[in-house]
Design brief:
This protein is of the alpha+beta class. It is about 30% helix and about 25% strand. The structure holds zinc ion. Zinc ion binds near residues 91, 96 and 135.
Amino acid sequence: MRHVRQAAGALRTLASSYPCVRVTAVRALAAHGGPQGPQGPQAGLVWARHHSDGPSVAGEAGVCHKTDTVVLNPKRSDEMSFPFVWLRDNCQCSECFHQDSQSRTIIMESFNINSKPETLKITQDSLCIYWSDGHVSTYNIEWLQKHAFSTSAQQNWLTNMYRLPRKTWTAKSFSSILSRFKYSDVIKSDAVLYNWLVNLATYGVSIIEDAPAKDTTVRSIAERVAFIRKTHYGEEFSVRAKPGTTNVAYLSANLQLHTDLPYYNYKPGVNLLHCLVQTESDGGANLLTDALAVAEWLKRDCSSSYHALTTTVVDWNDIGQEDGNYFHSIHRAPVICEDRFGVVERINFSQPQRDSHFNVPLEKVKPWYEAMDKFTKGIYSSNFCVSYKMKEGDILTFDNIRLVHGRKKYEDTAKAVRHVIGGYLDWDEIWSRIRVLKNNFRTA
Ligand SMILES: [Zn+2]
């Protein structure tokens, strides 16, 4: 708290223009038994305590002019520091913030980033700041705690509200992580809807069972969350063998492991595959691998391969037509995409949809293929890859940003038909639904 001590002086002078605060400050210092009284090193703190006989005591507040921060509860384990500029920018008054839309209304163009507090006043549940520009801001203490700059407060928000932590799985742990939910429960119950989405976010895969054998079932589930994500293949798409197709998914041969639509910059986030008719022949099972787990394994096992796959930009494309609508899509990105913190955020993997244009220096080509070979062996290995044959009425839901999926070949004859209807959801919408549900449960 050295910096707070160094703030002595400035506030004391300012406080004198607000007698009530000065009085409480002196009283509080006396009660605190400060070794040097109001003239001592802590005199820069302007604080107030509740003098009721209740068990709780309001915290203290001070300013540090070295770091330009307001410090709440100095020297205590729950000490929090807030930059002046952030506090002024996040004033919650009706002039600065519109409650109904939860939106800041301060005009940035005329905002003074150098406003300073003249006086602080703290009560049981609020902090009041009198600013140098004459403005007065009041902040709820609980609100400040939630928006604190401490690692724990920020981590809490990032993992509980922003994104839930992902947990990787292997072939061995697949059966223990695979969750199943009844279609009717997902439709009727917000708690079940929430649990399904949380499982999907955590493990990247979950199954909805006993879904009605209707063409509209995938849409009903998508609309329970948000809305179906349209692509150049339309909204719902039907997967069954059809001759003369432009997409290999519509063939009954083996379908290699892949992510869907890597050629989209905004790639659809989640696949919903509803099994209407399953082939009675052998085959037709889906293959699934948690490519995030394989990427982590590759990073540990062969960092040069991992580096090649995270830094070599690949061209992904899709050229064709659907119902007479022609498309030519291209997206350029590595196979394993890391975010700015080095965390894997997206896997792109599709043998048929990798362009022959490979816009990298000559010497990068062979090392990339070597790395790709290693990664491919990983995603197909029995350590990581599982097979799951959907039952009629199953909706297999999985993360298209993280998992790779494929299908074993099957005989498509009059007796052995397979019909799956698919659709997509976007993660932005899923995260939004998770947060809305979570907040509803909290306030219920
Ligand atoms: Zn304001």
